[in-house]
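By way of example, what follows is a protein record of this kind.
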Amino acid sequence: MQEVIVNLEIEVDISGAVIRDHEDAIYNYKTITKAIITFVSESSYNLLEKLTYEVLQLIMNDKRVIRAKVEIDKPRALRFSDSVSVELEAIRE
């Protein structure tokens, strides 16, 4: 198993939370973070690109997500470098 670092930017529609003022109306970052940790921990991919794509799809499955950017770093993947990373972004049309 190799260590990876996952960085996320997630833009969501908050109109439901503004109207209802209740936590179940907002995108739950804690829930998606736990889902990503579980997914990455249980995954086995040869390519960092594929892992990054699958994490992005996991986030975009929630219709409240307007835009998401996922960057996954693999520390010490290459000699003489701190890390190698792949970054992908999706925007809902």
